[in-house]
Amino acid sequence: MPATSEVPEDIIISIITELSIDRQTLEACASVARPFRVPAQRHLYSDIALDLGSHPSNIDRVKQLNFLFTENPQLCTYVRSLSLRFIPDDAQVPYGVFLELSQLRKLELNFRPNQLNMVRWKDLPRRLQTEFYHLMQSPHLRQLTLVWINGFPVTHLPHNGLHQLIIEDAYLFKDASASIPIDSLRILRFDCTLLRTDFVETCQTIVDLLPGCLEHFALLVNNAFLCPEFHKLDLTALRHLRSLQLGYMSPLHSAVHRLKEFVERSLPNHSLKRMTIIRTTMSFFGGKLRDVDRLDLNAIDKVLANAPRLNRVHISLSVPPALDSLLVEEIIIPQIPLLAKRGGVSIYAKDQQLLTFPWRQDMA
Predict the structure, then answer these.
(1) Which residue in 47, 53, 79, 348 is a FRET match for 266, CA 20 to 30 A apart?
(2) Which domain of life is it from (predicted)?
(3) Least trusted range by pLDDT, from 270-279, 280-289, 304-313
C-alpha cells in the first residue's frame, strides 16, 4: 500500500468529501497524516453553530474554539457558515474570536430567548454590537438571517454582495441615513409569528431599499390575526421581481377584499412570473374539506383568476403534505374552477408537484 504522501490529492479530497457528515472520522483523518489534515479541517470548520448560553458545555466549546483559532488562524479561513444563538444576561460572549472569518458566506444571528420578550438591539453590550456589525460586513457574506431582535438598525445591513436576507420575527429600525439602496439582494424572506402589526412596516422598509435588484420575495405569516395585514405592502417598485410567495395559516375568505386589493394595486406590472400561495394548515374529514377551507379556496380562485396583473403569471398552490394527488383532484380542484380553466396552475405539497394545469393556448 502506498504511503499517504503518495496518494493523489484529488483522491484524498474525494475520500474526505464522502466523510463530510461523519465528524468523528473527520477528526481522526485530520490527525492521522499531514496530507489529510487540511482537507479534513476544511470540512470540520466550514459550518459552525454555537449556543452562547451559560451551560458548561457551551462555555467549554467557545473557549476551545477561541484557543484553536488563536493558535491556528488558518482555520478561520475555512469557516463558511456561522450560526450564533445569543441569550441576553446568560451569554458567554467570545469577544474577538469571530473577527477574522474572512471567507464567511452565511451568517445567522439568533436572539430567540427562553422567555416571550423580544431582545432589543440597544440592550446588547456595545462591544457585541460592534462584533456583529463587523461579521455582517464580511466581504464574501451572501446570506444573512436575523431571528427575534427588535430595533435592529437598517444601516447595519450589508449593501454590497449580500444575496439572501431572511428575517424571522425581527423588527428593524430605520433612521434618516438608512436610504442607501442594497444593490445585490436577490432573495428576501419574512417569517412572522408574533402578534405585531408593524411587521408590514419592517417589510416595507427593506423592500424600499431593493427596487432594482430583488427577484424573489416570500412573506410567511404564521399568526392568524396578522394574515390580512399583508395587503398594506406595496411591491410596485420591484421592477425585477419574478416570484412572490404568500404563506398563511388561517383562511383569507373573510378578508378577500384585502387580497383583491393587494393583487390589483400592490404588485409590479410586468416582471412577475410566478405567485405561490402557501396554506400551512388545512383540514379535511371523510374526503371533504372543512367549510372554512373550502370558502378560502373559493375566494382565492375568484381573486387570482380575475386579477389583471396575474394574466401571465403562473399560480402555485402549496397544500399540507398530508394531501396526495388523488385527494387534490377530489377535494382541491373542485374549489378552484376558474384557475383550472385559466391554466398556468400547479398544486404542490412541500416541494413535490402533485398536479398541474397547462396554460390554455389563447393564454400561453
Answers:
(1) 348
(2) Eukaryota
(3) 280-289
pLDDT, tens digit, 9 for 90 and up, residues 299-351: 999 999 999 999 999 999 998 887 788 888 888 999 999 999 999 999 998 88
Identity (one letter) of the amino acid at 71?
E
Query: Is 127 inside a domain boundary?
Result: yes
pLDDT tens, position by position, 61-77 = 888 888 888 899 999 99
CATH for 191: 3.80.10
Residue 349 neighbours by CB distance under 10 Å: 18
pLDDT in tens, 162-189: 999 999 988 888 775 556 778 899 999 9
Please state the domain count of the chain: 3
Residue 340 lies in a domain: yes
- Of 156, 174, 197, the residue at which a domain comes to its end is 156
Q: Residue 139: inside a domain, yes or no?
A: yes
pLDDT band (50, 70, 90) for residue 92: low
Whole-prediction pTM: 0.89
Residue 19, domain extent:
1-44
